[in-house]
Design a protein that fits this description.
This protein has 96 residues and is an alpha+beta fold. It is built from 2 helices and 4 strands. The chain has a domain of 57 residues. The protein binds zinc ion (2 copies).
């Protein structure tokens, strides 16, 4: 019996650090910070897409984070402004 959860595949990427844009003070989250954020959003979703009428199973490594208020409209990278969506709902959210 093999009941062990599969280990996530680790990609070889250089860890990028968050940086603050000096002009706007906006924090660009990358690397470890982004992973924490994803994790938090994913935990809240309890593993299911947060799209309307959608209960698709999503996984931390495949879910797509959607900004409720787009970053281009001043939305920020906080869990309250993010939705854990499956691929389909994310496309819908962007009107595709
Ligand atoms: Zn989006
Ligand atoms: Zn969905």
């Amino acid at each position: 019996m093999n009941c062990k959860p599969r280990k996530p595949i680790r990609r070889k990427v250089k860890p990028k650090k968050s940086r603050v844009l000096w002009r706007t003070g906006r924090v660009i989250k990358k690397g470890p910070d982004m992973r924490d954020l994803r994790h938090e959003v994913w935990l809240r979703s309890q593993g299911y897409c947060e799209g309307d009428d959608c209960n698709a199973r999503i996984f931390e490594n495949t879910m797509e984070m959607h900004h409720v208020t787009f970053r281009s409209h001043g939305g920020s990278d906080v869990p309250e402004n993010l939705l854990a969506l499956c691929n389909l709902c994310h496309r819908k959210a962007h009107g595709q």
